[in-house]
Amino acid sequence: MSYLDSPRFHFRGWFQADVSTINNDVTAFDVKTSAQPDPGWNPEGTGIFRFVDCAVTGAFLNGKQIIDPASDPVIGMTIQNADQRAPGKLVDLDPQQQMVSMIFGMQIRLVSASLRTLVRGEYKPAPFANLWARQIEGPPTDQKLGAMYQSVLEEVTWGEDGDSPLLRALRDAAQDRKLSIEFNVFGYGRDPKIPRYTMGHVVGTIGPYRAGEPDHFVLGRQMIAQGPLFGTPAGRIGTLQAKMAADGLSLTADFGNSFQIQTADSGLVDIGPVLLGVLNTNPDSVLKTVDESGATIIAEVPYLGANWFSQTAGVQTFDLTRNPAVAQLLRRFPLVLLSPTKSPSTYDVKLQETINGVYVRADKFVFRINPDETQTIDFHATQFGALLSGSIALSNAGPFLAQLGGMPPNISIPPEGVNVPAIAGKPLIITTGADGYASFVLRANPNGLTVNATVWPRGYIAGQLYALGYQLAEQPPNYLSNPGNFVSILAYSQRYNSNNASPTWYGDIRPLFAQYGKLYPIMSKYVVDLSDYRSVVSRIDALTLAFSLPEADPNHMPVTRDLGKADRAIILQWLGMKGADGLPPLGTQPPEEPQAAPVAETEVKDDGLLPLQKAGKTAVIMKFERAGRNPSKEKDE
Predict the structure, then answer these.
(1) Which terminus of the chain faces fewer neighbouring Cβ atoms within 10 Å, N or C?
(2) Following DSSP, what letter does each residue of 140-179 receive, concatenated?
(3) Are 470 and 482 within 8 A, CB to CB?
(4) Count of beta carbons in the 10 Å neighbourhood of residue 397
């Protein structure tokens, strides 16, 4: 079960993402250069991610849509974040991988009109997926982008049910103290001149979770949009997922991140009738058109209905009970979204399920790993939504990630930092069982990364990026892959020996803190100046707590989660030490080193970008497009 199953409820409102932009250039981490980092459009961002003015707008139970609070009091209840701690944080994996922004430490509550918390859960940290140019009009900045987040709420606790049949049914259906959640973000405000600066629109769905299912995608039907990576798809409809009920009597599809919007605050763009159907054959390519003999229509997608998007978050269930033949076709042939053409009995294919219905996904696809640490990457393979036994080919996706992140400096060096397959080697094959599941144990080099600019060109930043590509080993010809389906890995370095018995400020701590003092001016301005010894030792208790908190905690330090376990350990060790003056040891100040010249760049840094396009996803997208890459073919590299 997932958020596409019943019972579920939908919400709509605003989100705030107060991201910091001063650290978006990787070379800004080099404190030994004379270069000053470009502050970007929001240099004093706090990193906060939270929901604002969100309320339940609709629900689905026992095959029926619910929109009236008289039918169920869950309608109108508010979706809020934590009431007894800090909001969540939005964090990029790395300045050279900003396309998997991840939410940490967010708690979500369902609150009744009497301000009672009826449901409380911890959002399992997860990044966005399926980023695309959703908005037609408006400034050419991140405001035009849309994306989706899917994860689970963990450690769910239930209060009173508020006399809601929906909540009682949801509590009974959920397993492992989890709920499934998906939400879509769009219409983000990047311009400081507008009232909703750092805020955007959100619609989402919460439904049941079943033990053993993926946390971050649905084991169902996957429809991948054709077109440029992050751009507008050829059919003007974005990638989506759907799921057929176990009894074959209904099909539920999520259009929440699929239809374009005209402006940030407008409704969905009218592109004419859109029909959900199933092909009557299993073609070996993505079709452009089909006649009425080649497809069976299931129903029209009611995307232009009054309040449809608000009340459903784009999640629509289609009843198949009156057409049992469709259920049989769906088990063997691809789903399609169609639009009528001027030619009689002919349809344009706007979106088509993957060829032969096969699909493989890594559940979690962003990893942070310490030296000598192991983590497991879980893969799930399906065919027309059913579990698929087969082989998965793993490869090195470093070249693709390097192009996406921009260069210099080089990434994936040294190659033995993690055990991804070598670039020049053959793909590594793993095999799924009858349950469609396979795993790969990701392992970081026990010796960490060599801090040597000639070997590892990112010695001034506490980690290195790697990427793992994957696809079905016997993937059909002409297969259209989701170009975002690769695993991003940040392997932490170990710049300092955590077994050092006598760390000092000058010898060990200041080199770590100097970066954060430079890159996070809001902390120096309002909390503690991390570049100043006296300021740091005046906040020993607060810093000890922050550096001790787990990665998922909203107050974890550093907020960017880009400091490894060994470096955090030596910071905590030093904070706990007391010299003759009762303070952590200062050590001997080294002679000041002359600052190096700014790092040379191989491309024009501005690259013609407007001020509001810098330091954001739009800058990454534009540079990627200008490089002339073809994302649909990147899997083979």
Answers:
(1) C
(2) SSGGGEEEEEEEEEEEEEE---TT-HHHHHHHHH--TT-E
(3) no
(4) 26
Distance CA 263, CA 269 (A): 9
Q: Report CA 320 to chain centroid distance, whole Å.
A: 33
Q: How far apart are CA 516 and CA 532, in angstroms?
A: 11
Separation of alpha carbons 385 and 332, rounded Å:
10
Which residue's structure tokens are 């760049």? 601
Task: Identify whether the C-beta of residue 198 lies closer than 8 Å to the C-beta of residue 207.
Answer: no
What burial class does residue 290 get, using C-beta atoms within 10 Å of its C-beta: 0-12 exposed, 13-18 middle, 19+ buried?
buried
Distance CA 564, CA 491 (A): 8
Query: Quick one: tokens of 511?
Result: 């080199």
Q: How far is CA 405 from CA 18, 182, 466, in A?
A: 22, 27, 11
Q: Angle CA(350)–CA(320)–CA(381) in degrees, nearest 5?
A: 60
CATH topology of domain 357-495: Immunoglobulin-like (2.60.40)
DSSP H helix total and E strand total for the chain = 10, 30
What are the C-alpha distances in Å from 545 to residues 541, 555, 572?
6, 9, 9
534: CB partners within 8 A, 6+ apart: none
CA-to-CA dists, residue 47 to 130, 198, 556, 557, angstroms: 22, 11, 12, 12
| Ramachandran sector of residue 544 (left: φ over 0; alpha: ψ -120 to 50; beta: rest) | alpha
For residue 379, the surrounding DSSP H or E stretch is: strand 374-383
Residue 35's pLDDT is what? 65
- Exposed, middle or buried, 65 (CB in 10 Å: 0-12/13-18/19+)? middle
Which spans in 145-287 are helix H? 165-173
CA–CA dist 151, 181 (Å, integer): 6
Gap between the Cα atoms of 294 and 338, Å rounded: 12
d(CA 363, CA 365): 6
Under the phi-then-psi rule, with left for phi > 0, alpha for psi from -120 to 50, and beta for the rest, what region is 130?
A: left
Q: What is the mean pLDDT of each run of 10 residues along the chain (637 residues)?
A: 95 96 83 73 90 98 96 97 95 94 98 96 97 90 92 96 94 97 95 88 97 96 89 91 94 97 93 97 94 95 96 97 90 96 92 96 97 96 96 95 85 91 85 97 86 67 92 92 94 72 90 82 79 92 94 91 90 93 92 58 48 65 59 36
Contact assessment for residue 490 and residue 94, using Cβ atoms and an 8 Å cutoff:
yes
What are the strands, taking DSSP E only, across 285-327?
289-291, 295-300, 315-319
Beta-sheet pairing, 486-492 with 366-369: parallel
Task: Give me the helix-helix angle, 565-575 and 540-548, nearest 10°.
Answer: 150
Question: Can you tell me the distance from the alpha carbon of 360 to that of 219, in angstroms, rounded to the nearest whole number?
Answer: 10
- CA gap 145, 127 in Å, rounded: 15
C-beta of residue 388 within 8 angstroms of C-beta of residue 432 = yes
Pair of tokens at residue 256 = 């929440």
